Amino acid sequence: MAGSAELLKFCAMESCVDPSFWSGLASRKLDEYQLSEAPVEITGYLTASRHTEVPSQLLLTGSSFEGPGARSSQGSHALPGRLVNFNTQENFARADAKGQMREAAARIWADIRSGAAEADPSLLSRFFVLAFGDLKRYDFTYWFAFPALKPPAPFTQLACTPLSEWAPGGAAERIAAAADAWRGLSPGAAAAAAAGSLPPPPFCLLSVAAAGGEARALPLAEWEAGGGAAAAGAGPDGAAGAGPRLLVCMSDPSHLASVPGWPLRNLLLLAAARWRARRLSVLCVRDARGRCDAARSFVVDVNLPELPDGWGDAAGDAAAGAPDAVGWETNVVGRLAPRRVDLSNLMSPAALAEQAVDLNLRLMRWRAAPSLDIAALASARCLLLGAGTLGCAVARTLLAWGVRGVTFVDCGRVAFSNPVRQSLFVFNDCLGGGLPKAPAAAEALRAVFPSVSSKGVTMRIPMPGHPPENAAAAAAAEADVRALDELISDHDAVFLLTDSRESRWLPTMLAAARRKVAITAALGFDGFVVMRHGAPPAGDAAGPSAGADAAVPAGRRLGCYFCNDVVAPANSAVDRTLDQQCTVARPGLAPIAGALAVELLAALLQHPAGVDAPAPGAGGAGGGGGGEGEAALGPVPHQIRGQLSGFSQVCMTGAAFSQCTACSEAVLSEWRARGPAFVLEAMASPGALEELTGLSQLHAAAAAAEEAAEAAAAATGADGGGGDEEGEDWLEL
Amino acid sequence: MAGSAELLKFCAMESCVDPSFWSGLASRKLDEYQLSEAPVEITGYLTASRHTEVPSQLLLTGSSFEGPGARSSQGSHALPGRLVNFNTQENFARADAKGQMREAAARIWADIRSGAAEADPSLLSRFFVLAFGDLKRYDFTYWFAFPALKPPAPFTQLACTPLSEWAPGGAAERIAAAADAWRGLSPGAAAAAAAGSLPPPPFCLLSVAAAGGEARALPLAEWEAGGGAAAAGAGPDGAAGAGPRLLVCMSDPSHLASVPGWPLRNLLLLAAARWRARRLSVLCVRDARGRCDAARSFVVDVNLPELPDGWGDAAGDAAAGAPDAVGWETNVVGRLAPRRVDLSNLMSPAALAEQAVDLNLRLMRWRAAPSLDIAALASARCLLLGAGTLGCAVARTLLAWGVRGVTFVDCGRVAFSNPVRQSLFVFNDCLGGGLPKAPAAAEALRAVFPSVSSKGVTMRIPMPGHPPENAAAAAAAEADVRALDELISDHDAVFLLTDSRESRWLPTMLAAARRKVAITAALGFDGFVVMRHGAPPAGDAAGPSAGADAAVPAGRRLGCYFCNDVVAPANSAVDRTLDQQCTVARPGLAPIAGALAVELLAALLQHPAGVDAPAPGAGGAGGGGGGEGEAALGPVPHQIRGQLSGFSQVCMTGAAFSQCTACSEAVLSEWRARGPAFVLEAMASPGALEELTGLSQLHAAAAAAEEAAEAAAAATGADGGGGDEEGEDWLEL
Question: A423 and B396: CB-CB below 8 Å?
Fold first, then answer.
């Protein structure tokens, strides 16, 4: 019987990978798979051929990672696949491709034998892809396989007839309509597809009435029930009696006349193995204008080989016993070799930069810090008070951490001495009197990374001891106080990077009042301090009872920059010699302190307690605050102090001072009650802060104690010693 | 007698300060005076009036700081002055100007009474200037005073006669010639002036023969000898007998007809006080075409007040008793107030930038580090191997330290992920495939600071385990080895900032062979190491006896980056997953490590032992190496290791390893003997390095020892333990 037939040929499968697939892979690789090379289940989408010139290709998109129901497109079938994505080019090159093919064949064969493939015919079209993505360059190497099991003897074809001829008259139209309905192309089915149901299987049966060609689709599993054994193999004009004819119907990706597509191979083997069929008529459905085209679709009558008993058996070892399979895709020049795609030229430069910047951050989670919450820092809006040496250093490190919202506040212009130490400025920024620093820094950040949202505000921060000179200046200062408060409110973290002590007072107070993260960095000649400010207790901040501490036990709240001082900040700008006016600091200090300030923020934002995170070994009742071990970047110190002379660095912790001139409840209450008027008073007379906080009394008491001690010493001859001083030594800043 | 005379008026003195004076002041302030406000002796230069429209001004130039003989200009007199340069604008504003004037008057009065002013008449024209220079802005505020002592009663003038009338006929010419000769304006005198003799005094006596007007100049001190008492006061046609007439002669800066210049005032008081003269004839010399102009010069006959006995006396308190003085200069709008000059607009922007950059460095010496040798670092030519994250950070910190010679070596192009972490690049550098990094970094440095001499060399450093692929590649590698050796030879310090272990091998060996300072910085995920390499013994480096250590005792030589390893560097680029290929490091690490690397170099270059400086607590015979205390920036550690997790930093010291694959004598000898051929061998087979250094035997011995220990353990039941490992733990880099 088979002798008179010619070999049946199949049109090879082709893949079509949308860039969204690769970007989906890149993103999952970075965040999810990381170092794993375990196979990932994916879905490919296939339709019947729609053009006479090109086959339909197996489409992979970003939704290929989201299961078969993720993408519904009329007439499209979802095929199951596996992606094996290797970590290195070398691993890809030495991948066990034959083993992979054997394994895939075994699964298909098992699904055929178990009946699973009848229940879900898409299992016949399993595919897999081996891949390696160089995510730094958006360069992907990959190799698709569409395993087709090899039968013991070739399939041959007896006849191949266009549907329009096979079922003349209205019969062909009715058969085509049934095929369309099965594929979800009928109007009612479209609604079902839109509702998110699974795509139709790629194969079905068509039962065609012998008279008139009335047709209806049946699942593959109904072969026996549909009368397959009897009906298979005869045309409508065949001699198989008056019963309905049973065709296998497939959405055929092939565009070649009389040559069915590759997926048919496994279906034929199923028919031979499972149905023991020796002859099968297959309707290869091809489309035109979104419907089955009876002129291009055709029925092919196939002779199937007889499978010997035990063929494809393997006791207990499915892989070893499965039929061989073929089906590696060729590359674009027709060779059996991997394909390669360089997506970088598809992407906009700005998008490439964004992806590249995120890459390094996301890679941190692979091995180094799996629990790192990158977004916690990247989404933080940071306010930088000062766009000088420290401001530039902080901004650059923030950028590298993925931070996208940076606002600078500065009142200066770029001077000739700046660019060599302030890494956001160049020589040309100094010409003509110099650009205003804050906007220039913001623009420089955008030149480094166009996706950053940076802003520069030219503003002089109101300071204690610097009274406004007249009414207009006072009004301006009041507006500045409000503007600064608003800026602090609009940001998540405030960096205090100015070069005088008193300019840190107002932002320290405002950040405390709003419980914002505040981080101070300050330089000496060869030392620095970087510290975070403790926040006052949360709760009804406006109420007078806010002093009663809820969240943080008394004594465990961390201090601010001013907590170690027993004098209010005052005008330090007068009477300074040149070396005191300029930043006379070893040049290495600013990059170190700036980087540490950002890393301190990074560590803090990873801590579950946020602004209230305890410092390691923090004082107070319980000693070391718990929970540091949980934070992805480790414990979060309160203060880091370093010296370049000796290259030493230590972490220290200091508690909040109840009479602090910047963050104590007395000061915060006054601010809440009186607002800018209070600040203007402090500008005019820093002593008011000492009165308010009781420091004046402390001074008086200390003086009295000293006098008493001196008197006692005079009486006893012992050394009197000085008054008590709260806290520890401070750097000369 | 005085009743018929009119008041004598004087033309006020004016100053003219050349910018070179201010730059001289700025430079001395920074390097020499620093915080001192002690008065500085300076010299002003004055000539007779040369124009009818403007007076001659007291000129101050850069040479005003160098003593009266520093500047010789024909006809110019050197006047002694004092500069009081204040540290702050506030100190300037509250300077005791009256006190300064009193003190200057006292000195002049003392010099008059002691005869010092007769011996050196320039003492009569002492001046002083109070100043404050804002060296950041090249903005100077200053106030000159030309103290003129007030007589007990005003000077009056009896007659004022042009010289040409006073001495008719040839007499005026002869007198003028005598005045010119005194002032060094005669041809012979010019030669003397050029030879560096002191400028002529601003006053002299002229003895004029009664008949014919023959004239000769005499020093003021010869008043009595010249017959001053008798001759003074009569014109050539006067009635004072036939003896020669004695005139006082002065180079008159005044341009006003019949009005002598300010300096005459103190001379007249001298005549009244010291000579007891009641009448004096003064020749006020003014010039035209470089010679005394008899038409503009004039003789004024002055009545001097009688000084009461004891006038201007002050027993033991010269200042209190001295006559009052006047003479503050007015500002440009004629008010008695300081003048101000903003020199910044005179300077080229590039020069301004240079000065500004040096300012901060020089200010370090005022208080913070008086013994700092700024030039030691600024003049160092630095070679940066790697223009990535670390290379950019190192280059920027070098720039801030004043370093002017920076060469980058890199083989990469700027990628989209670079700018946010590599501070010399911006987004636009990534377009079109990216600029080559090394030249782009060099150009970026120049954009920051135009005076830097930066260069970028695109070169791939030959590496062990990366054999050349063919003969052409081998030839290229050989050329690269020679080029790198030459680069290292041409620089003073080498920074090893590449991102693989094996790329550091060749530069480590080459730097050791040339005893150059080599500094390594390397990053892990949240740790870094920064270290300097010990240099091999100096001496006849090429000879085979170089192994005998002369300068540094055995065991005290510091290790290099490879001294802790017992395996040779090999190709680490194969088989790396994405997170291993990319710099997965906390963004703060690179700025910290880069800055520390430069500060380590800064400290090292301040150490008298340079590359051989011992590390604090270095091992070996003597323990802690001496002399650290002497270095301006403190002790110079060998290695600095830091962790961001925990924010810790420690210094460590490690000795050189006699079997090191990079810096041991065996390796250096081989390099000296075989040159690039040896490097090519190591590229092909890193094992050759292990053979050469005896590490292979060490491995074999360790394996044998382990086996023996295992056998022993098997026999005794004890735990065998591993082989010996040299040195300490290393970061995974």
Answer: yes
Q: How many CB atoms within 10 Å of residue B116?
A: 15
Buried b (16+ CB within 10 A) or exposed e, B364-399: bbbebbeebebebbbebebbbbbbbbbbbbbbbbbb
Q: In this structure, are residues A38 and A30 in contact, taking their beta carbons and an 8 Å threshold?
A: no
More confident residue, A245 or A425: A425
Pairwise CB contact (< 8 Å): B587 & A595: yes
Give me A582's structure tokens: 């300029």
| pLDDT for the residue numbered B713 | 63
B622/chain A closest Cα distance in angstroms: 20
Q: Identify the bridge partners of residue B141 per DSSP, sorted by sequence position.
A: B132, B340
Provide the pLDDT for residue A352: 79
As a whole number of angstroms, the distance between CA A651 and CA A641 comes to: 6
> What's the gap in Å between the CA of A458 and the closest CA on chain B?
21
Q: How far is CA B20 from CA A621, B25, B338, B346, B449, in A?
A: 66, 8, 20, 11, 24
**Contact between chains at A644 and B633 (C-beta distance less than 8 A):** yes
pLDDT at A2 over 50: no
Contact A685, A679 (CB under 8 A): no
Q: Which strand (E) or helix (H) includes residue B187?
A: helix B187-194
Query: What is the arrangement of strands in the sheet containing A215-218, beginning at the earlier edge strand?
Result: A6-7, A156-162, A298-303, A279-285, A245-251, A203-208, A215-218
Tokens linked to B455: 């260069």
Report pLDDT digits (tens) over B1-23.
444 679 999 999 999 888 889 88
User: Which of A420, A431, A579 lies at the smallest CB-CB distance from B363?
Assistant: A579
| B contact test, residue of A586, A644, A645, A652 with most B CBs within 10 A | A586
Residue type, A291: R
Average pLDDT of the residues in B145-165:
93
Instruction: List Cβ neighbours of B242 (8 Å cut-off, separation of 6 or more).
Output: B210, B211
Say which residues have a Cβ less than 8 Å from residue B94's Cβ, sequence separation at least 6. none
Cβ–Cβ below 8 Å for B427 and A416? no
- Whose structure tokens read 């050189």? B656
In 3D space, the residue among B236, B263, B192 whose CA is nearest the CA of residue B14 turns out to be B263
- For chain B, the first-to-last Cα distance in angstroms comes to 101
CA distances from A60 to A25, B46, B336 (A): 11, 92, 87
Question: Cα–Cα distances in Å, from B602 out to A284, A623, A641, B372, B532?
Answer: 80, 40, 21, 10, 12
CB A139 within 8 A of CB A356: no
Stated pTM of the model: 0.74
* Residue closest to A636 by CA, chosen among A533, A724, A491: A533
**DSSP bridge partners of B649:** A649, B642
Judge whether residue B187 has pLDDT over 90.
no
| Pairwise pLDDT comparison (A319 vs A335), residue with the higher score | A335
DSSP string, A362-376: HHTTTTT-TT--HHH
Cα angle for residues A554, A559, A563 (degrees, 5° grid): 110
Q: Is A592 in Cβ contact with B415 (below 8 Å)?
A: no
The residues of A assigned a catalytic role are 582
Q: Which among B357, B401, B417 has the least Cβ separation from residue A356?
A: B417
- Domains of chain B by start residue, with CATH: 7-152+316-343 (3.40.140.70), 156-303 (3.40.140.100), 359-696 (3.40.50.720)
Catalytic (active site) residue B582: yes
Give the list of residues 6+ apart from residue B689 with CB closer than 8 angstroms, or none: B464, B568, B661, B667, B682, B695
Rounded Cα distance between A721 and A708, Å, is 11
Higher pLDDT among residues A70 and B154, named by residue:
B154
Residue A99, C-beta contacts closer than 8 angstroms, at least 6 positions apart: none
When pLDDT is cut at 50, 70 and 90, the band that residue A620 belongs to is very low
On whether the CB atoms of residues B181 and B193 are closer than 8 A, the answer is no
- Interface ipTM: 0.73
